[in-house]
Amino acid sequence: MRRVTAICNGTAIDHIPSGNALQVLKMLRFDVGRSNPISMVMNVPSGKMGRKDVLKIEDRELNQEELDRLALIAPKASVAIIRNYSVAEKRTIELGSELINIVKCSFSNCITQNNREPLPHKLTIVSSEPMEIRCSYCGKNQDVDEIVDYII
Amino acid sequence: MGDLITMDDLTNKEILQILDEANTLLPVARGDIYLPLLQGKVLGNLFFENSTRTRMSFETAMKRLGGEVINLSSIGSSVAKGETLYDTMQMVDGYTDIAVIRHPNQGAAQYSADAVSIPILNGGDGAGNHPTQTMLDLFTIREAHGSLEGLNVMMVGDLRYGRTTHSLSHALVRFGAKLTLVSPESLKMPVEIVSDLKNHGAEVSETEEMSSSIGSADVIYMTRIQKERFPDEDEYNKVAGVYKLDSSDLSEAKSGMIIMHPLPRVNELHASVDSTKHARYFQQAFNGVPTRMALLCRGLGIKVPKKVK
Q1: For the domain that residue B137 is a member of, what is the CATH number?
Q2: Which partner for B61 in A83, B50, B234, B293 could form a disulfide, CB atoms 3.0-4.6 Å apart?
Q3: Same domain membership, residue B277 and residue B180
Q4: B291: closest CA among B5, B70, B15, B66?
Q5: CA distance B216 to chain A (A)
Q6: Strand pairing category for B42-47 and B68-73
Q7: Are A116 and B114 an interchain contact pair (Cβ–Cβ within 8 Å)?
Q8: Which tens digits make up the pLDDT trace of B51-91?
Q9: Which tens digit of pLDDT belongs to each residue from A104-129?
Q10: Domain A98-150 is in which class?
Q11: Is B29 part of the contact surface with chain A (CB cutoff 8 Å)?
Q12: What is the mean pLDDT of chain B?
C-alpha cells in the first residue's frame, strides 16, 4: 500500500529505523527554516526491518556530505535521488573516521564548550558496531542515543 | 610532531628510549654537570591551573639544559579578560619554541596543539591526561624494578578525575601490567578508559577494598581525592578520607614494593610511610626533572648524547 505519493524531483530516504525520521530531519537541518515539501511516514511495515520510517524531500538532491551525517542514526538507510519521477541515482551512506563540525562534544568540561573558541568541533568514530564516538579533543565517549541533541 | 598529548603519541620503543635518555641526563638534572643542549630555546610554561611540581620541574629541566623559560598564568594575563585559548596560543606560538600547558578544561592540550605550530606538551588537561607525569612515573617504576614488564600495579583513590592514573594505566598495560583499580563507586575509572585497557588484553580488576591487594602489589599508586574537581562539596565529603595508608598497613607487602603518589597528598598517605623502604614519592617528584629534560629534547628535536660528562 502506497502511503505517500511519488515525488517528481528530490531525495527519497527509505529504511530509516522506526521512529528516527524526525531525528533524521534534524540531522539534515531540515527541521527549521526550509520551504521544501517533505513527506514522512513512520512505523510502517517493512519486510527487512519489521517497521521503518520513510522520508521524501522534494526539489532537493542531498549531497554526500549531508547523507553521511545520517550514518550516526540511520546507517542502513537507502537513498535514492529522484528526477522526473524516476530513480536517477542510488547513494549509500558512509561513516567516515571523523565528524568535523557536524556534532558538538556533550562533555560539560570540554574545551570546545566555549562557543568563542574558533577551531572546528571534531569527533572520532572509534567503532561502528557497536557505534562508539569520542571527542577528538577531550577523549570523552558520546552518548549515541543523544547525539542528535548536539548537532551543530 | 614533537607534541605529547596522550601516551598514544609514544610507542613502547620511544618510551624506553626517553627513559634511557632521562637516565643519561640524571647528573645534569642534579646540577652536577652543565649541559646546554637547549641554549637559545625558550619554553612557554602555560599554567591555567595550579601546579607545584610540573611547573617547577619543567622550569628546572629547561634551565639545567641552558634554555630560557617564560611563564603565563591565567591570573594577571589576558586570559582573565576573556581571551580565547586559541588567541593566547597564537601569542605563545610567536614567543616560544615549545610549550607546556596545564588547563582546567579537558581537551585543551590537543586543542592547543591543533592551534599552533610549536610542539605542545600536555601538563594536565582537566580530568583528562597527564603524560609527562606518566613518563616520570614509568622512570620511577623502572628505576625500582629494573623493568616495566608484567608488574602488579594497584591504583588507589580518585580514579575518575585523577588524570595521572588515566595516562599511567594506558601506558602500563602496554607493558603487560596487571591492574587493580581501587576506588569508591563514585570515583571509578571512566568506562572508556577501562574499555581501552581491556581491549588491550589487560587484566584489570575493580574493587572498593584496598587492604587485600597490598600483599601482591609491586607498585601502589596512591592518589588524592581532588576536592577541586567535585561539582558538589557534599559529594566530596562522602568520599574524602576513604583510603588511608600508614606504615602499619605494610606488614604483608613484598620487600621490593614501592609506594608512589603524584602529590600533593592530603591524608591518604600518612607521614609514617615516609621512612619505610617502600616510599618513593619524593624521589618520583625529583624524577620529573631528568624525564622532562628528555621530553623537551624530544619535542625540540635535539639529540641527547649517549653519555654526558
Answers
A1: 3.40.50.1370
A2: B293
A3: yes
A4: B15
A5: 32
A6: parallel
A7: no
A8: 889 999 999 999 999 999 999 877 667 776 788 999 999 99
A9: 999 999 999 999 999 999 999 988 88
A10: mainly beta
A11: no
A12: 94
B284 neighbors B137 (Cβ within 8 angstroms): yes
Residue B278 lies in a domain: yes
CA-nearest residue of chain A to B113? A137
CB contacts < 8 Å between A and B, how many?
61
Question: Do B192 and A107 count as a contact with CB atoms less than 8 A apart?
Answer: no
pLDDT digits (tens, 9 = 90+) for B229-242: 777 888 888 888 88
For residue A138, give Cα distances in angstroms to A105, A121, B115, B187.
9, 11, 15, 19
Total of domains in chain B: 2
Chain-chain contact of B126 with A105 (C-beta, under 8 angstroms): no
In 3-state terms, what secondary structure has residue A125?
strand
Instruction: Identify residues of A whose CB sits under 8 angstroms from chain B CBs.
Output: 105, 107, 109-114, 116-119, 134-141
The answer to whether residues B276 and B156 belong to one domain is yes
The grid coordinates of residue B208 equal 572498593
For residues B87 and B195, state if they share a domain: no
Share of chain B above pLDDT 70, in %: 98
Share of chain B above pLDDT 90, in %: 83
Q: Is residue B1 domain-resident?
A: no
Check A138 against B6: CB less than 8 A apart: no
- B260 - beta bridge partners? B221
Architecture of A10-91 per CATH?
2-Layer Sandwich (3.30)
**Beta-carbon separation of B110 and A113 below 8 A:** no
Picking from A138, A140, A141 by the largest number of B CB atoms within 10 A of its own CB, the best residue to mutate is A138
Stretch among A45-49, B25-29, B120-124, B280-284 having the lowest mean pLDDT: A45-49
Please give the distance of CA B269 from its chain centroid, rounded to a whole number: 18
> Which amino acid, one-letter code, is at B74?
S
Of A107, A114, A138, the CB nearest to B84: A114
| In A18-141, beta strands by DSSP E | 38-46, 50-58, 78-83, 86-91, 98-100, 122-128, 131-135
Q: Tell me: do B45 and B103 sit in the same domain.
A: yes
Q: With an 8 Å Cβ cutoff, are A109 and B127 in contact?
A: yes
Which residue among A116, A138, A141 places its CB closest to the CB of B107?
A: A138
Domain match, B171 and B208 both: yes
Tell me which of B8, B103, B111, B192 to substitute to probe the interface with A (most A C-beta atoms closer than 10 Å): B111
Residues B125 and B144 in one domain: no
CB contact under 8 A, A107 and B111: no
Residue B2 lies in a domain: no
> Three-state SS string across B105-156, please?
CECHHHHHHHHCCCCEEEEEECCCCCHHHHHHHHHHHHHHHCCCCCCEEEEE
| Domain of residue B75, residue span | 7-129+286-300
